[in-house]
Specification:
The chain is an alpha+beta fold. The chain has three domains: 2-56, no CATH class; 62-171, STAS domain (Transcription Regulator spoIIAA); 187-398, Heat Shock Protein 90 (2-Layer Sandwich), CATH 3.30.565.10. It contains 15 helices and 13 strands. InterPro entries: HATPase_C_sf (IPR036890).
């Protein structure tokens, strides 16, 4: 009888039979009838209607949450990394945040985790920095409690990127490939991390590629420095809303930052990552909007709400504190360099993202909200390096 119940349950899970509870199946096999509750009838008809809609339009219903974990041994797990590591589309954002959430969760359960990069064929700077930051945080926080390793990617360009930015160093993985002058998309990447808010830290990173850019790059330093400042000096300290912080492990809430910089195709890109509370969480502590305005924000989905909060932070220059240089705000620092250098700015924070393009003079905004949160902030500056900028810098005295 048990095997029969199991078989019927499997058929129900595959959509071959209506979903029934264990009690309903048992009673049916014994000749009894159990009446479905009103809620059960509603859910059943809703499920059937959705199934018919899919069939009517000739579409195949996608599988939800395809498994990316494979148990190797009792205390060892393999987790598949996304094919494309990025944040700039809903699919990429969802895949990466799901992967990182799984990694955080399993790192508290397993003694060893192996990340499988065999299917990864492309990495995009914003997603790459977020992944590196999360894994670096886990390594620092968990130590020997969970050993994280990885496989080599099959794509050589991806492997060279991992070498260049120090990702393999974080995981103790040996370098196999040589990076030469032909690797134009790889060789100019520079990476730094720390807990200091000294502007010289941002300056040192950009000076590593100073022979590739004009002196005007220094305009980016105040924005990067302000982002570092926000990462380390939160005015309203609360634990990060993830399993690692809630576990009470020491160092889990260190205010660390991570930065990438690159020159490629005539543009300077600087990407900053902070795994703190995120702009939408920390800003409301200082806001004094009307009750009606706050209520309107709470009726939105988390992604849309975060998007609105980021937009307001950029437009109004709200800050978490009024102390000294930390009172200037996002609008006066983070946006300033992009505006003065006619560049682009993208801010990913929690489940929202806002982009600002100053190429046409006045700012043009793009924005979106996602279902999953990155539990932090990623800021990307992208500014053109033009002949006019070089000539302008030649006239500036040091």
């Amino acid at each position: 009888m048990v095997s029969t119940i199991h078989a019927l349950t499997q058929l129900a899970n595959r959509g071959k039979l209506p979903r029934l509870s264990y009690l309903q199946i048992t009673c049916a096999l014994n000749g009894y009838h159990v009446k479905l509750l009103k809620k059960d009838y509603y859910l059943r008809h809703k499920r059937i209607a959705k199934q018919r809609t899919w069939q009517k339009h000739g579409r195949v219903r996608p599988k939800k949450n395809q498994d990316i974990c494979h148990q190797s041994t009792v205390d060892s797990l393999t987790i598949e990394a996304p094919e494309v590591i990025g944040l700039h589309s809903k699919t990429l954002h969802s895949n990466l945040t799901r992967f990182l959430s799984t990694l955080r969760k399993e790192s508290l359960r397993q003694r060893r985790i192996r990340i499988d990069f065999s299917k990864t064929n492309k990495v995009i700077s914003t997603g790459m920095l977020l992944m590196l930051a999360e894994i670096d945080r886990l390594r620092i926080t968990l130590g020997d409690q969970c050993k994280i390793t990885c496989s080599y990617p099959q794509d050589q360009t991806v492997e060279k990127v991992f070498q260049q930015i120090g990702f393999f160093n974080i995981l103790g993985k040996a370098h196999r490939l040589e990076i030469n002058e032909d690797d134009v998309t790889v060789k100019n990447w520079r990476y730094a991390s720390g807990v200091s808010v000294n502007p010289k830290d941002a300056d040192i990173l950009l000076k590593a590629i100073k022979n590739k850019i004009p002196k005007g790059y220094l305009r980016l330093v105040p924005g990067v420095s302000e982002a570092m400042d926000n990462a380390v000096h939160h005015a309203y300290i609360r634990p990060r809303e993830d399993r690692i912080s809630k576990s009470g492990i020491d160092k889990s809430n260190d205010k660390r930052w991570w930065v990438f910089a690159q020159v490629h195709d005539g543009r300077l890109s600087v990407i900053f990552c902070d795994l703190g509370l995120g702009i939408p969480v920390t800003l409301p502590e200082k806001w004094a909007e009307s009750i009606g305005d706050i209520v309107r924000l709470t009726t939105l989905s988390p992604g849309k709400r975060d998007m609105r909060m980021i937009r307001r932070a950029l437009e109004l220059g709200r800050t978490r504190t009024d102390q000294g240089h930390r009172g200037k705000g996002l609008a006066q620092n983070v946006m300033k360099a992009a505006e003065e250098l006619s560049g682009r700015l993208h801010v990913y924070s929690n489940a929202g993202v806002v982009g600002v393009d100053f190429a046409g003079g006045s700012p043009t905004y793009t924005q979106d909200g996602h279902q999953r949160s990155i539990l932090g902030t990623v800021i990307q500056w992208s500014v053109p390096i033009t002949d006019e900028q070089v000539q302008e810098d030649d006239n500036v005295e040091n």
